[in-house]
Amino acid sequence: MSLEVQKQHDTLIVRVCGEFDLRAADYCRRDIDQKLKTQGAKHILFNLGGVTFIDSSGLGVILGRYRKVTENGGKVAISNVPPRVTRILELSGITRLIPVYANESLALKELA
Amino acid sequence: MSLEVQKQHDTLIVRVCGEFDLRAADYCRRDIDQKLKTQGAKHILFNLGGVTFIDSSGLGVILGRYRKVTENGGKVAISNVPPRVTRILELSGITRLIPVYANESLALKELA
Amino acid sequence: MRLRNRMKLEFLSRPENVSLARVAVATFATEVDFNLSDLEEIKVAVSEAVSNAIVHGYEGKPTGTVLLTATLYQNELEIVIEDRGRGIADLARALQPGTSSDPERMGLGFVFMKSFMDEVDVWSEAGQGTRVKLVKTLPGELRAQNLAES
Amino acid sequence: MRLRNRMKLEFLSRPENVSLARVAVATFATEVDFNLSDLEEIKVAVSEAVSNAIVHGYEGKPTGTVLLTATLYQNELEIVIEDRGRGIADLARALQPGTSSDPERMGLGFVFMKSFMDEVDVWSEAGQGTRVKLVKTLPGELRAQNLAES
Ligand SMILES: Nc1ncnc2c1ncn2[C@@H]1O[C@H](COP(=O)(O)OP(=O)(O)O)[C@@H](O)[C@H]1O
Ligand SMILES: Nc1ncnc2c1ncn2[C@@H]1O[C@H](COP(=O)(O)OP(=O)(O)O)[C@@H](O)[C@H]1O
Fold this sequence. Notes:
The complex is a heterotetramer, with 2 copies of chain A and 2 copies of chain C. By secondary structure, chain A is an alpha/beta fold.
């Protein structure tokens, strides 16, 4: 699993690649929270384009960041969801809280 | 593992794909021997281009067919060896018995 | 029910072994030509049960042992995941969707297991450990084929 | 030698499980960033030892049990493959290159294990079964890194 984090305006773009499971979750949580703080971002965009596997541990990282960011008045979005991730994302109920966009630029337009 | 067998003139071209291990060996041995007989071929060309894994069980199928075919005055050749297969093929000593060619047409030219 | 194949996998309660468990079960299951989405579902269910054993059962301590048994019968794949950890005191409550003893988790593990498998059974006793049985029925065509072969 | 991770895999002596053993060991080993050719070599060695257990140990009968244990230490990966099959009466002879009790086989299993692993030990007794230990030393850079971490 690898994480690419990039700040654009007020938004932290988080590109997740590989297996987003328990092993990845701890590392991701810490890395994202730290970068939110040091880079002073308000919103988060999760680009899931490279995700090959996700389970409730991975989804938990997204939901946890959502709770944190919205508490501070920020917004969260998801983009580039691969077909194999779509169903579990919907089943989790996350798509009722967090909007899903086809690509990064559409998502960034809404977050701005 | 999958096997594609095709007769061209006197030669049975055997294209092996996937993992050429113990599980594949039994099936291959039977399939090749049966087709040698029914199609009345004299030589065999093993195209290993699609092989993702090989061990001594797979190599044993090649050597066994070599013994059988040469007893009847036929010849055996190998072609399209992937890099990961090269070393184990040399280590086995098979390359001292059976000539290796870059592609099928070069091999067929020599077998003819 | 005729047994066709069986494997047992025992590993330490370390997060990196969740992926080991998934890969082993998926490889074991390829033997029966499950379709890709069935395989994905089996992987998620295994991932949830094994993650629970590590996170809840052994409370994150990496020295516990998790045991996974996969058995292929004529008509179904059965997977049992066991730990000898903390156990679940109130099982009825734990099985409710959205219930988690860990604020960083979603309480969706059992929900996913139930959504993705045809049968989920849980045995647990406080202080004794937990055992989760997951069953996936083979696709109809495969079942018929197996009957014809037997 | 500090233990970093361990798994045990038990499976029936069926040819389809040779690939299961390879995949499980390769997944277990990815944790230490072996390079690709090391991983390939480990897979061949495991394949040979497990195939031997099935073909020779249990003489092709699919009802035997093969046990594979993989342990990751600070400096090496150790893999032990055991069967409770026929055993080897004359071990010195069996270990000679090109020696096989099966005319359809090449007698290269032990040759490959020795070429591809840093250490190969075999224990066997006629009628009792066979145990093969395979050791692969971690690449130098990884060893240094582990020492630094410990
Ligand atoms: N193997 C286990 N050992 C101990 N407790 C468990 C185990 N599996 C599940 N539980 C309990 O059941 C609850 C619900 O589990 P689950 O639905 O998977 O949600 P989550 O893992 O997100 O908490 C957990 O929060 C935990 O308290
Ligand atoms: N697990 C085992 N149980 C019984 N006999 C074995 C076992 N492993 C190896 N042998 C014996 O040792 C011989 C040499 O083994 P090996 O070098 O792997 O060659 P091959 O498998 O091609 O015969 C085998 O032919 C067999 O007689």
